[in-house]
Amino acid sequence: xxRYTGNVCRLCRREGYKLFLKGRRCESEKCAxxxxxVPPGMNIRARTRRLSDYGVHLxxxxxxxxxxxxxxxxxxxxxxxxxxxxxxxxxxxxxxLERRLDxxxxxxxxxxxxxxxxxxxxxxxxxxxxxxxxxxxxLVRPGDVVAPAAREKSRKMVEDCLTLNSDKSVPSWxxxxxxxxxxxxxxxxxxxxxxxxxxxxxxxxxxxxx
Length: 210
What we know:
Low-confidence stretches: none
Mean pLDDT: 84
CATH architecture of the largest domain: Orthogonal Bundle
Largest sheet: 5 strands, antiparallel
Number of helices: 10
CATH topology of the largest domain: Ribosomal Protein S4 Delta 41, Chain A, domain 1
CATH class of the largest domain: Mainly Alpha
Radius of gyration: 18 Å
Oligomer: single chain
Strand order of the largest sheet: 2-1-3-5-4
Number of strands: 5
């Protein structure tokens, strides 16, 4: 399972955008984007020059990949799947990314961040419809129920996260039962359900369609 293991704050600075890869820390005064909102690197001229149209499109694609923790090959497969689906390709792509299990766990407040959700899933702390799933990229469907595994450690971790995220808003396509520590998938996420509303998915479609 490929994943980025470097300094995630560099990714936020590179995109000039809060990717929320460290959960609550990204909302505090310690956020790297707020403290030093310039791309990382030694070449100052390269960091500050105006982007070409291709560069703008590429940066949008890289931003989305880093938000959802997706590598290039997997992102290409998602895009090909979105192209085959009916409707707008960009909207389909965002819907597929939102349906990833690690994103659902994070959106429901059952983890501290999306990377934390991915780690918890890979360690076997979650089930889907009663069956253990340890693949963070698994896509959920309407009617699925995500819950912690039947272990005290798993339930305690999820309970602590739900308590810390009690003030966090949950997307309308998810139904969270804090008492039972479960989240039910009500329907497929629409474009307005995506938490990062300022993503320009059309730029990604134009770039990947060339």
